[in-house]
Amino acid sequence: MPAATSARKKSPRPASEAMDEPTARVLRRFRLVFNTVKTHFRAVEKKAGVAGAQVWALSVVAAQPGIGVGALAKAMDVHQSTASNLIKPMLESGLLLGERSGTDRRAVQLTITTQGTRVLRRAPVPFAGVLPDALAKLDAATLARLDRDLGKLIEALGVQPRGANVPLHGPED
Description:
Elements: H1 3-8, H2 21-48, H3 52-63, E1 67-68, H4 69-76, H5 80-92, E2 96-99, E3 109-112, H6 114-122, H7 130-136, H8 140-157
Antiparallel strand pairs: 1-3, 2-3
Helix pairs in contact: 3-6, 4-5
């Protein structure tokens, strides 16, 4: 670790010590973001009757009938196994149809059913969730700065990026 980096690191503060104002202000902003996301997912589940990630998947399939699981995973920026786990209960409950056709009989083409369309009509927008929607509205410079700064935060947390391709809310939550 470079000397400049280690010199800037603060030692852990005792639990009884109050946060400085910049730290508290940023923490409040994170709480606001997380609580907004949670509130949206609760509203989706209450109105649509399925998890937010499932609504997003339904919307992708509705927009791209015949999409495969790999393409769905890419559209949602999740791992293919996560997409498979996400659609399995929707296939079982009749929200989606999966058909094997063409030369590669392993590949499943997904289509939304009438029941799935009804669920989608009840769901509040944005289907992808409020956070991806808000991020898409930011300009490139802001996104680049946010990416760099969140990278520093992730480094300070000392976490591995394993969870980066898992939806914030879905069947695995």
